[in-house]
């Protein structure tokens, strides 16, 4: 079957098990932008409503006060440009019914993720109904969207039936759209915190998932424009290599295959999933603290996290993992370790914080691919923690202070390198800016 989509520097070619794969046609360098796509439809999560512009997703600030839509009182905009953009795209179809819809019993009976789906579906349907006539254009967002493979999710009747407005499109189209919706629905994030969901048909059509991806999506919010997804190369990609992105957090070791089955209708066969399969069932982490300490030690030795802290970050292959370490792949393990780190750091238990934070870094090196943004943000948190330690302890002797500052420098430079690859994204003040601020405190 011919593959009509043509994108600069990418070729879609046949894939042994999947429908197709996007491969690089030229060398793509680390940190470069592979594609940039506007959201075809997007919706804010409930907790962000009123805090961001519903049109461009920029956050409210002293310089950017939001104005309410006078029709429904439930959509907020920076200005008339954003409002007009949203009105034309979908809001004119939704405004009148919005409140009746969201206060209905049917809507209230939905789980919160279903509410979000229902609203996003509303935006999508309104959007689609405004552009009928262009449906068969292969390169239009809708044409690409309709060319996506349907997911395994059976359209949820409730979500469909409470769908607030009646679109002037074939009722049959609704399930067709919906079946392509669950598996092609991206979480939109700012500094890795989810703020909304959106549909980016071209990105769905091009990129398959990998748990060790060589690219990742960042989101850009700018005045008067829809949210934009940019796919960034996390490392150099050579010609003929497949370009992959994460559909979900690779740290979800135990649940990810299940999520793929249920939501996406495939099993991931990446190298990491292959290794994981050879490990067999993952044992729960031990409850006793001497045993946990011994596992932490093994993990740190395996990744040599302490020795590289002076140089660059190594790539740790997920091979030859000692049996005693299997439990680090248990999701409880990473959850508890992150909680311990962040609690200790904010409560000022700096030694515990740096200790658990270093173990967590070792785990990140094991599970995430090089330059993964989560690792960059964690390194920045470690740098801030070590910095707070030097500030918070006035009785610290000179040597300890110098040694701690040296650690701040190492964490910060490793973290900045990764954050620079991912580049500026999301809201204005982010980890990159924080890293610069800390750097100027460190070396005034
Ligand atoms: C992604 O790749 C897997 C194999 O790793 C395959 O089973 C799946 O169908 C692919 N998905 C898409 C959307 O191409
Ligand atoms: C992690 O925390 C949960 C809840 O606090 C606890 O039940 C569990 O035993 C902890 N696991 C480990 C490995 O510490
Ligand atoms: C560092 O200290 C500041 C000021 O006390 C605090 O707001 C911040 O949360 C601390 N950061 C970390 C990572 O502990
Ligand atoms: Zn706006
Ligand atoms: Zn309105
Ligand atoms: Zn995988």
From TrEMBL:
<dbReference type="GO" id="GO:0005634">
    <property type="term" value="C:nucleus"/>
</dbReference>
<keyword id="KW-0863">Zinc-finger</keyword>
<dbReference type="InterPro" id="IPR046341">
    <property type="entry name" value="SET_dom_sf"/>
</dbReference>
<keyword id="KW-0479">Metal-binding</keyword>
<dbReference type="Pfam" id="PF00856">
    <property type="entry name" value="SET"/>
</dbReference>
<dbReference type="GO" id="GO:0008270">
    <property type="term" value="F:zinc ion binding"/>
</dbReference>
<dbReference type="Pfam" id="PF01753">
    <property type="entry name" value="zf-MYND"/>
</dbReference>
<dbReference type="InterPro" id="IPR050869">
    <property type="entry name" value="H3K4_H4K5_MeTrfase"/>
</dbReference>
<keyword id="KW-0862">Zinc</keyword>
<feature type="domain" description="MYND-type">
    <location>
        <begin position="53"/>
        <end position="95"/>
    </location>
</feature>
<feature type="domain" description="SET">
    <location>
        <begin position="140"/>
        <end position="248"/>
    </location>
</feature>
<protein>
    <recommendedName>
        <fullName>SET domain-containing protein</fullName>
    </recommendedName>
</protein>
<dbReference type="InterPro" id="IPR002893">
    <property type="entry name" value="Znf_MYND"/>
</dbReference>
<dbReference type="InterPro" id="IPR001214">
    <property type="entry name" value="SET_dom"/>
</dbReference>
């Amino acid at each position: 079957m011919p593959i009509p989509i043509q994108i600069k520097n990418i070729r879609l070619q046949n894939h042994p098990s999947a429908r197709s794969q996007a491969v690089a046609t030229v060398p793509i360098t680390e940190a470069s932008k592979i594609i940039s796509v506007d959201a075809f439809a997007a919706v804010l999560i409930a907790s962000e409503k009123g805090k961001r512009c519903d049109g461009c997703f920029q956050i409210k600030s002293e310089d950017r006060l939001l104005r309410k839509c006078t029709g429904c009182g439930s959509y907020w905009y920076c200005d008339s440009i954003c409002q007009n953009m949203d009105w034309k795209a979908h809001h004119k179809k939704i405004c009148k019914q919005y409140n009746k819809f969201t206060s209905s019993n049917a809507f209230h009976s939905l789980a919160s993720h279903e509410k979000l789906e229902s609203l996003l579906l509303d935006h999508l349907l309104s959007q689609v109904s405004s552009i009928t006539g262009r449906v068969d254009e292969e390169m239009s967002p809708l044409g690409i969207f309709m060319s996506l493979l349907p997911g395994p999710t059976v359209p949820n009747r409730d979500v469909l039936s409470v769908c607030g407005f009646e679109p002037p499109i074939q009722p049959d189209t609704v399930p067709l759209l919906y079946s392509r919706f669950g598996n092609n629905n991206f979480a939109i994030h700012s500094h890795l915190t989810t703020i909304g969901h959106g549909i980016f048909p071209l990105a769905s059509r091009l990129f398959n998932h990998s748990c060790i991806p060589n690219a990742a999506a960042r989101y850009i919010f700018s005045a008067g424009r829809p949210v934009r997804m940019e796919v960034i190369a996390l490392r150099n990609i050579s010609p003929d290599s497949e370009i992959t992105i994460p559909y979900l957090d690779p740290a979800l070791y135990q649940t990810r295959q299940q999520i793929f089955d249920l939501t996406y209708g495939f099993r991931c066969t990446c190298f990491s999933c292959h290794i994981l399969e050879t490990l067999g069932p993952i044992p729960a982490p031990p409850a006793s603290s001497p045993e946990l300490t011994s596992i932490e030690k093994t993990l740190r030795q395996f990744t040599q996290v302490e020795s590289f802290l002076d140089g660059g970050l190594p790539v740790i292959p997920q091979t030859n993992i000692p049996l005693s370490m299997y439990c680090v792949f248990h999701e409880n393990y990473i959850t508890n370790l992150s909680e311990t780190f962040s609690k200790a750091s904010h409560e000022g238990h700096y030694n515990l914080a740096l200790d658990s934070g270093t173990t967590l870094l070792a785990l990140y090196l094991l599970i995430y691919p090089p330059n993964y943004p989560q690792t960059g943000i964690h390194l920045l948190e470690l740098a801030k923690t070590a910095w707070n330690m030097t500030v918070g302890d006035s009785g610290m002797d000179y040597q300890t202070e110098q040694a701690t500052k040296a650690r701040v420098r190492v964490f910060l430079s490793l973290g900045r390198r990764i954050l620079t690859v991912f580049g500026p994204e999301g809201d204005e003040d982010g980890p990159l800016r924080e890293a610069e601020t800390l750097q100027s405190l460190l070396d005034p």
